Structures are given as C-alpha cells and as structure tokens.
Amino acid sequence: MKSTLATIFLLTIVFPASRGLAGSGPLPDLGQSNTALGRFWVGELSRLEQFPPDYRISSDGTLNFVASRGEVRLAYHSLPNADAECVLVRITDAVLDHAPSAAPGCLEFVFPWRQGASLAPPRGEAADHLICRGVVDACRLVQIALGQGERPFNSVGLIGDGYGAGIALAVASLMPEKVSFVVAHQPVCLSADLYASSGEATWCEEDAAEARRLEPLLNAERLAPYVVAPTLVIAGEWDPIATPEKCRRLWSALGRRGTLWMLPETGHCLPGELTDWDALWQRWAFVPWAGPA
User: Which of 62, 110, 177, 234 has the smallest C-beta neighbourhood within 10 Å, fewest atoms?
Assistant: First the structure.
C-alpha cells in the first residue's frame, strides 16, 4: 500500500536523540566482539582485500566498480561540490530503468535484486545471500566515494530506503570511522515474518525457516547497536512491511544515536513519491536543530 503526502513536514511523532556522542564509555566494537556476528562480518569484509577498488566512470555518469567477488557492479555518480561537508552514498532496492539524477556529491547504488526476483532468501550460506553481498559491495563503494572530488573526504553520509536502508545501517556498523550519519527510510531487514506481510506469493514456510536461520547474521537490527553515527529512521504510519513496530524496535536498538520520525497516513513508498523528502533529511543532517518545520 502506498500513499503520497502533499507535504511530509506534517510529522506527528518525533523522538529526538543526541546527535553527538552516544553517551559516556566506549562504544561496542563489532570487529573486537569475538561473537559469531563479529567473526562473520570481519571475514566478509576481508574479501575486499582480494580485489583493488577499481572503477570506471562513463560520460553519462554511470560508475562501474569491482565488487567483493571480482564482479562488476553499477552505480550512478555525481561529483561533490567544493564546499560539501561529506560525500553521499545512496542505496536503494528500487528497480530503475534509467539512471537517476544523482544529487551533487552523491553515488547511487541500486541494490541488485533482479527484475521480478522473489524477496525470499535463497538456500545456501549467509555469505551467498544478496543482502550480505549488497552490504560488502556498498562498503567497497564507500571506499571509492571517499576518493572522489577535488579533495579527499574523511566520511560519507549514507542514505537508504527499503532493503537499501538496512544495508546502510550494516555498512555504518562495519565502517564506523567512515560514516558521519545515516538516513534510513522505511528500513526493511531480513526477518522470518517479512514473508507474511510482503504480499509476495512466492514466499512459503520454507522461506520463513531459511530467514530464521540467516537472520542472526544478516538482520540489520542486530547490527544497530554497533552503529556509531547519528541515524534518522523514517517510518510510515500505515507501512505493512517496515511497520511502525519494527521501526521503533530498530530505533530502540540504536540507543541515543537514533532518531525516529513517523510520517502520518503513509504506507510503504519510495522517497521520490513524497514531496520535499530530500529537504526533510537534509534539514536533519545539516541543520543543528533536527526537528520538524
């Protein structure tokens, strides 16, 4: 179910959070956690060392880059402005039939679901799952993004929607020193109950069982406690997939680093379907007071 608002500054519920330090004491370090979750992701990130961060930018702004397994992935490129505070990496699971008009200083990465493919998790190891591969590929794109423009950047801002938002949160947990903020629009995380609400006829009970098996490693909610950067979670009041309950749970897992904004009378939708969506997150990210207009 989708709903387009006349303006999305009609926010009804705002849970502001500290956008500075997340409190006293050291933050949890996934790489040093010595848990199954930490060991899995440290191993996956080591795949990036096997291939140099090669890429090619075409005249039309498309960027082809070498991903974690030597495969070539596609992104869309726009050089940052000279006065930009950081470079942006936008991650989406939308199927696009044309190159998006990337904002200045933005690399857009289309999470590679195949056209018409089921969202059901494939049988196999967690490392072979599209979500895992998308996370590692996005980490590679962050490395590339930091070298763009006339001067090097120290950090990126991550913007994601749907599964792309879940991937953005995972990247932020794995590269904490490289991420300055995260915007997660209606984040979808791998979960056993997703098939029941997604409306996908191709899901079955076996898919749910497979999701339960992989969820401990691939669900972004489990990685959220390791996110250091301030994070804005945008939820829709009527969203049947990234439900308000799931978004609140994710926000809670983020602790003081998280802010939750609820869009009233809004179903599951793409950011482009909402008026002034870019102005909304930019105001939160770049204006000292992160509140509604």
Answer: 177
- Three-state SS at 66: strand
How far apart CA 242 and CA 237 sit, in angstroms, is 10
55-57/87-92 β-pairing = unpaired
pTM over 0.90: no
Which residue type is seen at 73?
R
What is residue 196's predicted lDDT score, i.e. its pLDDT?
A: 53
Cα 96 from Cα 55, distance rounded (Å): 21
With tokens 């961060």, the residue in question is 53
Q: Which residues contact 149 (CB under 8 A, 6 or more apart)?
A: 79, 80, 82, 84, 87, 105
Whether residue 14 is predicted with pLDDT greater than 80 in this model: the reply is: no
Domain residue spans of the chain: 13-283
Q: Average pLDDT, whole number, for the chain? A: 77
> Which tens digits make up the pLDDT trace of 46-79?
988 888 878 888 887 788 888 877 778 878 777 6
How is domain 13-283 classified at the CATH fold level? Answer: Rossmann fold (3.40.50)
Q: Where are the alpha helices (DSSP H) in 128-193?
A: 130-145, 163-174
H/E run at residue 284 = helix 277-286
